Amino acid sequence: MISRTSFVAVSFATLVPFPTFASDAVDFAQSLIGRPYVWGAEGPDSFDCSGLTQYVYQEYGIDLPRRAISQSGVGEPAGRRLERGDLVFFSTDLRRSEVTHVGIYEGAGMMIDASKRFGRVRRDDLSDPYWVERFMFARRVTSRVAARGGIDPRDGTIEPPRSRSRIDRRAVAAAVVERIAGVLLRRRRD
Description:
Layout (H helix, E strand, L loop, with lengths): L3 H12 L5 H10 L18 H10 L9 H4 L4 E2 L9 E4 L10 E7 L2 E6 L4 E6 L3 H6 E6 L2 H6 L17 H24 L1
Antiparallel strand pairs: 1-6, 2-3, 2-6, 3-4, 4-5
Helix pairs in contact: 1-7, 2-3
């Protein structure tokens, strides 16, 4: 039997749209395909790899650090199952000793990145031997980070939101629903 509290939480969850944060970020990145690659560029007219990811996520209330190696510490490990919007990291040096490149996972084995090799923002196939050889790992930057604020590029700590973008409201609503569900599950176990 479902308690009244559970029904309210379930009903509330169906009314609140869960964040489509990652899909929105990927859609935005897709709109930037074709823009030129320029080392050190942060957009909106041209990008380097980490400038692109920083620019895209900043649009949704997440302040990523500026360099790819610094971005590689943000979020949670994505594991083996990549999801749309995950950050994918590569080492383009021969020793594979540190992160030197980042892209945004689009889905279906593709990423969007600002490519020095091709001189523009483009869609790249992760099964291309070039990327297979250089792939290191992926990180998931969740909407929960957006609800709490961005990442301080100096030390990687989470800071309060700076703007009231549309993702903030949806992320906060999702976090509330998640907390309610957690409380209900704990009560049920007790």
